[in-house]
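Record type: monomer structure entry
Structure origin: computed from sequence
Chain ID: A
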Amino acid sequence: MGVGGADLETIGQFPLFQGLAPDALHSLVRGAEVRDCAKRTVIFEQGEPVTHFFGVLSGWVKLFRLRPDGSEVIIEVFGPGESFAEGAIGMPEGYPVSGEMVEAGRLLAVPVADYVERLREEPELVVRTFASLAVNLKRLVSRIETGSSLNSSQRVGAFLLNFCPPPRPGATAADVRLPYDKKLIANRLGMKPETFSRALANLRKHGVTVRGGNAHIADLVHLRRHVSSE
């Protein structure tokens, strides 16, 4: 499916494309397509030739590698408004990871060949692409740093705080909808499911209760203190 007007407006808010004039944006994604993807749709597999990079219009996407025993190592999870796999554009060995839909959603698929041609013609796009890669790298480094410096309950607390909706003026509590299932959250945080469960239990004394896919944070200030404490 081609890119329609409503999707074009959403795509214009992606960091990679933000600030482009409407005509320039329309021209840039002219050869792109919007894909409706079911849950567990494989987007690409590690080692496949790099043909597209992607933006998430809705749903969640996990990038992962497989261990020798067949278990997954989650590299990153991307959600609405984020792009991924643009860093693989210059990799002749193929995609360095596999990508799969965590839930049903819609993706913008941008052909690499067309985009590379535009990069040669428009230096501004080169700068934007490097800026997008820098954001993703900073995010990965931050996650590695968090994983090495915080205990399990602090890591889970930081994850919940990251997904808090913007607080209302004067609000001291918050409700958070978990973006994807607990098993995937645990994997993304580098934990076994049982460690994740223990971390959630530990967070109860810090005012956090989780029921199904929803978390309630009774005291945001207290949780932030817990996450930042050594």
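Annotation 1: Residues 151-228 form a domain with the Arc Repressor Mutant, subunit A fold (CATH 1.10.10.10).
Annotation 2: The radius of gyration is 19 Å.
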